[in-house]
Amino acid sequence: MVTPVTLNFSAPRRGMPPTHMADLSRKDLQDQVKQLGLPKFRADQLARQYYGRLQGDPDLMTDLPESARSVVREALFPPLMQPVRHMEADDGETRKTLWRLHDGTLLESVLMRYPGRATLCISSQAGCGMACPFCATGQGGLDRNLSVGEMVEQVRNAAVAMRDGEVSGEEGRLSNIVFMGMGEPLANYKRVVETIRKITNPSPEGFGISQRNVTVSTVGLAPAIRKLADEEMTVRLAVSLHTPDDELRDELVPVNNRWSVEEVLDAARYYADKSGRRVSIEYALIRDMNDQPWRADLLGKKLHGALGSKVHVNVIPLNPTPGSKWDASPREVQDEFVRRVIAQGVPCTVRDTKGQEIAAACGQLAAEEN
User: Fold this and answer.
1) Is there a catalytic annotation at residue 205?
2) Catalytic one of 93, 121, 150, 362
């Protein structure tokens, strides 16, 4: 039996960072540039440098007059994050970075190279208030929401790493973004939506990554899922369900005490209908906890009934945290679980896990550092 835990929806404990250029809309950037005594066209130059050329240092922006660079740096490019360390795995194809923010807060991002694509897993909060007992981040609690600038900077730094061949030793392009790092993205709703637009808008207003290559993960904040659907974007929604029954989900995913499995799946169906995208159901398979054959059958039946053909299940072998009582299911149990879900007419695959030897489960590096 899992000990029930209390959700932490209280205010984050630390202050937000200074305003960065990435926090600003195009109009706000133009206004800021004007206030600095620079002509309006400098705003577009800065945006092209930042989003198009991935340049985050005004001193290296050669089309900006030298006399203006220090002023621009001080006003628009405050240092938001510094790498504490990088860790590599999978023959250099996976790189996890631990970042220290301006206030000392720690967060993580993971850059993963696959055949034909490169995916960055970014954090949306420092810590997490959802309190899922098998998650290292959830057990650490919530420090604060991240700013748009802090999320965008994770993306820019990863895009630079791909461009410069820092991952697997080859030049490449960042193609996919998943909001699956530390935090609950929909609990930082407004900033996450703004960040998605910065990621997907064409240069000079964004990095130009396709919305279809962006995934937002949530533990199931049903009203926010519906609100996201009404944004009329084409990002993929991933719901961390982890069990199909309310009794166990109340314990594994405490937010289920507010929004039941049925409510979450109804919201997911609304999202699928509005976006035209299949919804991913994330299911961390935990030994002797949620891996029973009857739960696989029930999961398949509920998903087929609620979402029809607009759903796909990602079974995730649990990446246990050090000292945790939680463990991954045996391979034969995992295979049987997948087989049973598929037998109910629902596509189901096992996620290709990367970086286990470098504590790549979100929150592990930050927990170790603390």
Assistant:
1) no
2) 362
Check the annotation: does 241 bind a ligand.
yes
Q: Could you confirm whether 108 is annotated as catalytic?
A: yes
Of the listed 93, 108, 150, 282, which one is catalytic? 108
The reply to whether 92 and 196 lie within a common domain is: yes
183 is in an annotated binding site: yes
DSSP string, 38-89: --THHHHHHHIIIIIS----GGG-TTS-HHHHHHHHHHH----EEEEEEEEE
255 lies in some domain: yes
pLDDT per residue as tens, the chain (370 positions): 433 334 443 334 467 899 999 999 999 999 999 999 999 999 999 999 999 999 999 999 999 999 999 999 999 999 999 999 999 988 889 999 999 999 999 999 999 998 889 999 999 999 999 999 888 888 889 999 999 999 999 999 999 999 999 988 678 999 999 999 999 999 999 999 999 999 999 999 999 999 999 999 999 999 999 999 999 999 999 999 999 999 999 999 999 999 999 999 999 999 999 999 999 999 999 999 999 999 999 999 999 999 999 999 999 999 877 667 889 999 999 999 999 999 999 999 998 776 555 454 555 555 555 5
Q: Which domain holds residue 248?
A: 81-369
**Residue 336 exposed, middle or buried by CB count within 10 Å (0-12, 13-18, 19+):** middle
How many domains does one find in the chain? 2
